What we know:
Blueprint: H1 3-47, H2 53-83, E1 88-94, E2 96-112, E3 115-119, E4 126-129, E5 136-137, E6 142-146, H3 148-231, H4 239-257, H5 259-295, H6 299-326, E7 330-331, E8 336-341, E9 354-360, E10 364-370, H7 372-375, E11 383-388, E12 391-406, E13 412-420, E14 432-449, E15 454-456, E16 459-466, E17 469-474, E18 476-480, E19 484-489, E20 496-498, E21 511-515
Parallel strand pairs: 1-21
Antiparallel strand pairs: 1-20, 2-10, 2-14, 3-9, 4-6, 5-8, 6-7, 8-9, 10-13, 11-12, 11-14, 12-13, 14-19, 15-16, 16-17, 18-19
Helix pairs in contact: 1-2, 3-4, 3-5, 3-6
Amino acid sequence: MNQEELNTTENTTEVSAQETTVTEITEEKGKKKKKEKKAKEKKEKVKKEPMDKAKKKKIIKRSILGGVAVLIVFFMVSNSIAASNMSMMVYTTAVTKEDVEQVLSTSGIVKTQESKTYFADIAVEVGTIDVALGDSVKKDDVLFSYDADALAEEKKLVELKLQSSEGGYESSLYKDNQYISDLGEANINLEVLEQQISDCENYVKELEQKIQDKKDALAYEGALLQISLVDWSDQPNSEEYENLQKLIQLNAYEQQHNSEIEAWQKEVTEYQEKIAAYKEYKAEMKSQKSTAEGASMNSGSKSQLEANTEIEKINATGTLSAIEAAEGGVKADFNGVVTALSVVEGSTPVTGTSMITLESTEKVKVEISVSKYDLEKIAVGQKATVTIAGNTYEGTVSKINGMATTNASGTAVVGADIQIDNPDENIFLGVEAKVAIDTAKVEQALVVPIEVINSDKDGDFVYVVENGVLAKKRIVTGISSDDYCEIKEGLTEGEQIVADVTTGLEEGMEVTAIPQE
């Protein structure tokens, strides 16, 4: 016999014993009551006198109280027996399949996605201002206008400046081209002159070497003749001696009046004169080169001149375009609201001064703040529903900031933008808007009511009843709506789980499961 059967037997025995006790008490009371009744009847027969009413009432009262006492004892014994055998009742519900849609509900501030500040592009007197702060304007509406006469005067002045700039640039280029030509001529001539001077000097050196060589040869020949004359000095009257004397005299004359040497010396003189002329012309070319280099523009100067001229041209062209654009008034580029207005009628603003700021109502967003708990739920591209002043719009998560900031409560939050896909004229910038973001959706997912899920240090779980005993069953949850939570792991469709988890349930308790319809 197992433990459950032993427990059942013991309980049955105890109940039987208690029921026997009650029966014995009841039978004993009944016998006693019969004896009292017989004694009373016998007494009445003996006396044959009517009973006093007060005494009769007292006897009835005692009988009733005795009966009530018996009933109370019986009820208490019965409840004790039932309580010792009855387990706690718990309601259960089935795991079902449903479509689950997770929605993040929050609020934010309506702001524009496009803003333009209109600056003073020209320093011209303002004529009229056609809008006021907070006005709603349509695309191409005139915001403000410049004085017509002042515009015409400024336009003429800019055109003259542009003409002057272009003329100055052309003049500078012409002069520079002249200097470049002189410089080119000097460089070419200097190169030729250098070569000519070098060639002439080298040729002169060759001539001088020839002259020297010829003189050395004649001197050597004279020396040999002198030696021969010494050898014949002991025969002064001989023919050989006389011939040697003649040759020595002829050699001496040749050394002084050699025709080749004279021709070479003449040529040396001519080339030296050429070299001198070349060097003089070279000096002139050097001067010309120096002047041209000093007056002509180098690549940097020329680039600077071109850049400055181009800047002046761009500025003038831009100013002319701005003047032409402003001749019909400064107009709105899109539908929007005037959120800043600093232009003053009749004033002449400095170029670059802020005049009007226009914020678009065509490209609108809602800026929201997301806590760290909801951050993982949202993503760019998710659809949303935006409610502004009772009007509903479609929206899309367009941006999630990459860093957190601290809100007024000191909590770290991350900013995100919800782009309004279908804005209209009923949208007001700066007001609060309600936002519902469709963060996730799963069709026909296993779900349980969200309130049946419990959590502890080990994770999420639900209670189930196994063989009359309460047990924990671990689960892995997914997305959740306001009513249901998706179950990814741990449960199957149709499985019964405990629905009421607010009665202090503990694992291992004996319970009686009552399925809910």
